Amino acid sequence: MNFTFTPEEERLRTEVRAFLVEHFTDEVRAENAAGKRGEGWGEAIRDFFEKVNQKRWFAWSWPTEFGGGGGDRTAQFVIEEEFYRYTGITLGGGTGAPSILMFGTAAQKEEFVPRSIKREIIFCQGYSEPGCGTDLAGIRCRAKRVGDKYIITGQKIYTTNAQNATHIYLMVRTDPDSVRHRGLSILLVPMGMPGMTVRPLWTVQNDPPAPFGTTYGEERTNEVFFDDVEVPVSCLLGEEGGGWEVARRGLNLDRVGAWRYLISVMRDEDIVNWLHTDGELQNELRNDPQVRDKIAEMWTEAEVCRLMTMRSISIEQRGGKFTYEGSAEKVFAPEHSVRATEAYSQILGPFAQLMQGSPEAIEKGIFAHNILGAYQSTINHGSVQVMRDQVARIGLGLPRAAK
Asked: What is the pTM of this model?
């Protein structure tokens, strides 16, 4: 594959940067942060979303009939990369929409995909439960079919963005006698249904609040409770009992994109950018050969993260079979995040522990807040242990490990 971007793609990058500098103002940034906290979306951020949608940048490589740009996947990567660096906003239709494009009925695609692109519909992901965080085969949340309805009972936990989502992309067990991955289904459930309760879980990043650019710096996640919540059968995505395949394919696609690799390498960029500034500590560290060697080592690993992402995008763009590659990225990139975070904490010493608001904090305390968030990346969206098993069995054809 070609590891460089074309002149046209670089011109697109320049255009996106200029657009963000002009339109993603301090007011828009503040309203975006408030929306994430569950305080609602203001007029400034809504106006910004509309300007982006007019350019079809939210989903540049998606089909035009659903509101996408009909462009190629590499160009979308360029757009996504610039957006996430500058705004922290992820593009595409968000959680749920890629799976709906793949598995949804014509009616579901028409209802959900265009509105997801426009940010009129926002999905949160209802996977994890108190008894099964990383092993989704242990899901116990039930959906019993009664006539033309499903009745949902159970609980989800660590449901990020449930406070501002319009729908939950919900994995449930529809066959009460099934075990492990069999008998699971995906339902597209509107938020706020009778019997549904969202309760906040404030994170360690809440007080003091994490600075912009912190990996997994969300101030809030949630518990979601379902007490005989009734939804129509039309909420079912894919086949009843086929939810594991829908979720697996959806997660594999969700792991491919600029923001997924950026959350693992931005700390490398942070340390290099900070060392390029003037200061007694910066001067001392950047002239230390051991520090230089360690940062070079981490930067090399960061490039591997980027190239693994570009490989997956290339496979997808060429219409190739995309199977284990997303899982492989999910192993290497988060583990790099942990190694890099530990290395920079050692390099910075006590300064790495100073959070936002501390008088001597470096870069608003971003290195300290990254310490709090880095280890989360090895668990979210599937633990690295589970992903290793996926690579072994699907990528290498090895047998399932003996129990």
From this structure: 0.84
